[in-house]
Backbone:
């Protein structure tokens, strides 16, 4: 299996009058060809910033302060805007949360799809329309030729999200970055959209980076999970391992906080406090004020990313002093 | 405590809230010019209405956590607002503690407004941004209890603030200084401060992060236990509903499909729509397995389907379902189902 996407020590800062704010703090992970990765975390954890940073879509006052992104071996984080534009929407596509915000309300679906195709390929309008209709068929939209002539408001929310996915598929990308693609949708529609993602990924060995706050959705669709907290990845491993036996105290708390059918009516496990805002990240481990296993060292030193083993032999990475063999309890 | 929560309410307890054939219609025809339409060669005035609630009937027993679930646009929020009197119903009856309340004048309604409170979804929109927390909490108390002295009001506000896990120092601050979870605590405090018996909570946690959701759910469950509250909990997150509810009502297009004790509903859903809805819940640590796919999309509540509102998407639908509206009928185990197929025992 060859590596599709490699993110190394990626850091994004926002330049403010009061100084720089770090929104993404040294994030590293890799995605193989045809693999599905879930990037999970609560609002403000930096997961969307990570998605944007990969395709160099960070706009001012934000900037990439360090690290690099390799896509199929090519360092795309160093490319000029002109060159990265040939990759975006072509070899890497994005799908966003709100389909109504992504589609232009005054243009037909067909116009928007043809435009996307012609931006990347030298083809005529009828050929482009044929490709567009074919992609609509792929996302199970009935009578696609007729649908191409319609406007976004003529579709329901679930149908619009299918269209967005069809747009993302237009140039046969090797990677789709989907940022909360089902959060605005009802649960029955969500199940259909996630089915569609699975089907498409398996059909064409496409990689998927699923950014979401919903652990249950991630656990059903992805092979790997990276959990983010306050701009950092705190745990990464195979999905089954992380969900079954989470190692980082934050992941443990997050999973225990979910109502899961057993122990009905009992108190849920709650993580005390709230995630810090970026202006007030605590020193040391940013989770230490909420952590049930906090030690003296946690407030002083930022934990390094350490390898961990899961029961059953799986391997992962955890950023927590508890797993540091050289740790001295002071 | 935990055991009696799962028990179905006994038939002897008189319900705290009874809703009978409640209907609500919203007129969306707009101005006179919008209403004009050409029909059979003549200009006519046409009214366009949304049928948000269609003959909804249910009871809530004291101490219950009665959840209403359904997808967006099914009318669950309208149901909560109509029950509590924020919307006047267009048909049907609402009884609180045995007394009919939907026909009361605003003045006659006053004592019920203290006993019934509401918590809203969006803690950013439901708190007045220009008032300090103390003023937000004191206002309902002063309004419903004009006999209280300033000191008594202050004491009760402090007491309720502590109960919701807040700090007395919060009282001097403005809503924008708080996070979403803290604001929702303040919203709950505002509902609790007048010492209500019944709270309609409309999606109280869906704007919050997972770790904060657990805090607010725990707070609500604690308050229920300490004060003997009854909840009508409106939600779309089915795993949360499964966790906290005694009974669950499933709504589709303004009608109730199924009302059942939570345990029964999640273990053995009867109505075809409930089956589809529950099979779509993503589950932690499970591989994606086939969910029941519904054909087509939710029809518009402007032109309701004839007969059973679900018939166009139901794989069991037959000619009777197209023709005749199913009644909510009692099945074994306290389950009520509105489905011809279930009534005829072919599903």
Residues:
């Amino acid at each position: 299996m060859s590596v599709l996407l490699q993110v190394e020590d990626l850091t994004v800062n926002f330049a403010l009058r009061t100084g720089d704010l770090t929104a993404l703090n040294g994030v590293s992970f890799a995605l193989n060809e045809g693999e599905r990765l879930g990037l999970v975390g609560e609002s403000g954890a930096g997961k969307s910033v990570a998605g944007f940073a990969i395709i160099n879509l960070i706009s001012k006052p934000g900037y990439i302060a360090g690290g690099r992104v390799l896509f199929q071996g090519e360092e795309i984080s160093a490319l000029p805007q002109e060159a990265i534009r040939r990759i975006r929407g072509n070899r890497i596509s994005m799908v966003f949360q709100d389909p109504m915000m992504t589609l232009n309300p005054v243009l037909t679906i067909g116009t928007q799809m043809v435009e996307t195709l012609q931006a990347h390929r030298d083809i005529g309008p009828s050929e482009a329309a044929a490709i567009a209709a074919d992609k609509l068929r792929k996302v199970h939209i009935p009578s696609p030729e007729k649908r191409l002539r319609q406007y976004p408001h003529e579709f329901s929310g679930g149908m619009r999200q299918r269209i967005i996915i069809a747009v993302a598929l237009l140039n046969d990308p090797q990677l789709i970055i989907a940022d909360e693609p089902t959060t605005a949708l009802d649960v029955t529609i969500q199940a259909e959209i996630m089915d569609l993602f699975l089907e498409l990924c398996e059909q064409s060995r496409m990689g998927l980076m699923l950014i979401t706050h919903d652990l249950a959705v991630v656990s059903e669709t992805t092979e790997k999970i990276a959990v983010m907290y306050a701009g950092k990845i705190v745990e990464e491993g195979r999905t089954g391992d992380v969900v079954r036996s989470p190692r980082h105290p934050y992941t443990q708390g997050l999973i225990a906080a979910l109502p899961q059918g057993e122990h009905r009516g009992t108190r849920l496990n709650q993580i005390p406090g709230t995630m810090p805002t970026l202006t007030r990240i605590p020193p040391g481990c940013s989770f230490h004020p909420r952590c049930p296993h906090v030690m003296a060292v946690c407030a002083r030193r930022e934990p390094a990313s350490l390898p961990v083993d899961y029961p059953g032999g799986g391997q992962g990475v955890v950023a927590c002093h508890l797993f540091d063999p050289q740790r001295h309890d002071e | 405590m935990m055991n009696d929560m799962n028990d179905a309410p006994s038939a002897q307890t008189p319900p705290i809230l009874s809703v009978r054939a409640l209907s609500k219609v919203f007129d969306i025809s707009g101005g006179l010019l919008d209403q004009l339409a050409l029909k059979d060669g003549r200009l006519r005035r046409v009214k366009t209405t949304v049928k948000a609630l269609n003959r909804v009937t249910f009871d809530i027993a004291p101490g219950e956590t009665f959840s209403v679930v359904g997808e967006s646009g099914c009318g669950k929020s309208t149901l909560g607002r109509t029950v509590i009197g924020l919307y006047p119903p267009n048909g049907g009856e609402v009884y609180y503690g045995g007394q009919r309340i939907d026909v009361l004048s605003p003045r006659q309604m006053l004592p019920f407004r203290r006993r019934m409170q509401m918590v809203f979804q969006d803690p950013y929109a439901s708190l007045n941004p220009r008032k300090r927390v103390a003023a937000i909490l004191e206002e309902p108390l002063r309004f419903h209890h004009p006999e209280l002295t300033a000191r008594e009001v202050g004491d009760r506000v402090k007491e309720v603030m502590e109960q919701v896990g807040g700090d007395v120092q919060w009282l001097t601050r403005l809503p924008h200084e708080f996070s979403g979870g803290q604001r929702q605590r303040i919203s709950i405090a505002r509902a609790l401060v007048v010492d209500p018996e019944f709270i309609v909570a409309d999606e109280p946690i869906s704007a919050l992060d997972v770790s904060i959701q657990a805090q607010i759910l725990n707070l609500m469950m604690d308050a229920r236990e300490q004060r003997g509250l009854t909840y009508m909990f409106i939600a779309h997150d089915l795993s949360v509903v499964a966790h906290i509810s005694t009974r669950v009502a499933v709504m589709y297009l303004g009608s109730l499909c199924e009302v059942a004790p939570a345990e029964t509903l999640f273990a053995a859903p009867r109505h075809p729509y409930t089956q589809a809805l529950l099979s779509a819940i993503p589950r932690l640590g499970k591989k994606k397995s086939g969910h029941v796919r519904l054909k087509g999309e939710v029809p518009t509540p402007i032109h309701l389907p004839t007969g059973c509102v679900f018939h166009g998407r139901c794989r069991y639908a037959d000619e009777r379902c197209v023709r005749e509206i199913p009644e909510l009928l009692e099945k074994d185990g306290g389950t009520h189902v509105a489905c011809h197929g279930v009534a005829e025992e072919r599903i």
Summary: Residues 1-10 of chain B have pLDDT under 50 and may be disordered. Residues 15-258 of chain B form a domain with the Rossmann fold fold (CATH 3.40.50.300). Chain B touches chain A through 46 residues (CB under 8 Å).
